[in-house]
Amino acid sequence: MPDRPSGRHPGWPATIGSLQLPAGLVALRPVRLRDATPWSTIRVRDERHLAPWEPTMPGSWAQRNSAAEWPGRWMQLRSAGRRGVALPFAVTLDGRFVGHVMIGNIVREPLLSAYVGYWIDAQAAGSGIITAAVALVVDHCFGPVGLHRIEATVRPENEASIRVLTKLGFRQEGLLRRYLDVDGAWRDHLVYAVTIEEVPHGGLAGRLVTQGRAQRA
Q1: Integer Cα distance of 120 and 100 in angstroms
Q2: What is the pTM assigned to this prediction?
């Protein structure tokens, strides 16, 4: 077993490498206060794309996702990162904010586990961007962060999200009945997971690069 990373909160803050896709250069960085306008613009516009998969919350979608709401959310995310319980990343495409990947509920020894959640601008969906972003963040978690297991929960109807997870080698482990209040009702969720032993040499990002080369050959 490799030596575990040392430090109070290993792997944070961090700007994670990048992957070049036909759509552009995908990279991850910590969320910033000045992300307010692009974050709000995308989310308000993409209500129909995002709302069916997100937890039910008080207030209207426009209210919850206004630029004025971002500073408070950003402070919560920054605090979680500083406390070592989450890794809140902005997804960028050629430097432009296009989505969010969150590693949450980080538990250290003995579990060394966390969950991953993500969303992407509808105008950028289907281009492999969020798949690349999740690959980068999982590699980071199994490297500098020092985790052993990453899991994700997803509604069975969310075929696009399931494709992301299965392409990266996440295994389906079970079904959680009425697990989370999403879009106004208690919804079943599938559980997917991957452990460090299942990641190939070169990481998940390396696997995507290899797959891309094979498809172009």
Answers
A1: 7
A2: 0.93
